[in-house]
């Protein structure tokens, strides 16, 4: 009979952690997890992965404790794997499968026979099939699988082990729509506790609650991501309203103190003049002076107390507002005429040297400021097609015509020279732009003053992509066509929303490869093109 004491749970008490450079990520964190589905959100660098690693015991906290009751499975974002690892090794079941095979062959010892899980092979096969990998050979090289297949295989291994808690770090990164559906099904059907770090808003909408890590600490929000966003907007409006009120009070207090000081100076001056003209005795004049000085001291103390109270309220209000700025601007450049041909592909065939026919006999025309989503399974050639259009790969046959300036932006922001400043990058990509124009354009993307002189190598992933967008579309003559290859992978949600803001202000055409359905919807995709695997036909 189960009791409350052995119910699976994870309890964090007074937990503190720091980043490798020593700055504090969070401190005195009290939090618990049970059988609910929890989404963990926050900006890059706030400590989400660190928190998962503390829970599973891969890191030690600076202070506090982690109590664990139940088996924990952890799907890491970047697992360390030998190049010669088999699928069985990659999914963590090599030892159990080897023992099972020894038992079948009659080579197991008496002690080993007692340890064998005779259902392990059948359960592994069932888990792989559940995640779309039916028939996968456990002796197959793990590295031969695509990134998405590796993620699903590792998850299948964890499910086979029957954990009470499943922790997943960005499980849908690099997965196509079909593979994301498999992850979604697992989230819906898993009977234990779930803790997921993700910027996939569709996945987060399946959660029971959202835990947010910010510079202000950790906040638990009941409900799914949609509920969290709505409540966060209301909470932000309240705290910003309090900050505005505190600022007004501080300014009003300062004005009142100054007005009182000026009135008193006028009264004191008038009193001194009146007493002097009346020829009062010195002893009476000295007494009046002492009274005036005492009054001035009292007024000063009152003013200091009022000013201190106003400043304290302002400080509290400022501390309650996290520093978060959304992009809000109008871009330069005219919108493309609706009938202008931006891109024309005729019977295009091409690919990398080892597979020069990934794209075969493909034709496509883009006109005006079209917003196109290029879709298809992993391996269908979406990135290859963008690289052909951008000129990074040479076609084997066919024609590519692009009469407008184009910019190719991938998740690494390779358009930028990582050793040059943002200002220098802007001027290189916008010939003829002055320093003033470069600073003004970068400021619209929130790279102001000193930030405009930083190099991309010092920026986070989200900041790099924002800088690449600034250089590509922020000038007087912006690129007329953007090629976007999974631009928001690995970005936190606030950075994704900043990219969405920039693209919504953009007046040119773009072709976007992304498996994030919410992102594609938010940037106003008006045309979807399916690239079929192996045939390179467009539907």
From TrEMBL:
PROSITE patterns reported for this sequence: ABC_TRANSPORTER_1, ABC_TRANSPORTER_2
InterPro entries named in the record: AAA+_ATPase (IPR003593), ABC_transporter-like_ATP-bd (IPR003439), ABC_transporter-like_CS (IPR017871), ABCF (IPR050611), P-loop_NTPase (IPR027417)
Segments forming domain ABC transporter: 10-240, 343-535
Region named Disordered: 237-283
SMART domains referenced in this protein's UniProt entry, alphabetically: AAA (SM00382)
Segments of skewed composition (Basic and acidic residues): 249-271
Key words, A-Z: ATP-binding, Nucleotide-binding, Repeat
UniProt xrefs under PANTHER family: ATP-BINDING TRANSPORT PROTEIN-RELATED, BLL7188 PROTEIN
Family membership: Belongs to the ABC transporter superfamily.
Name of the protein: ATPase subunit of ABC transporter with duplicated ATPase domains
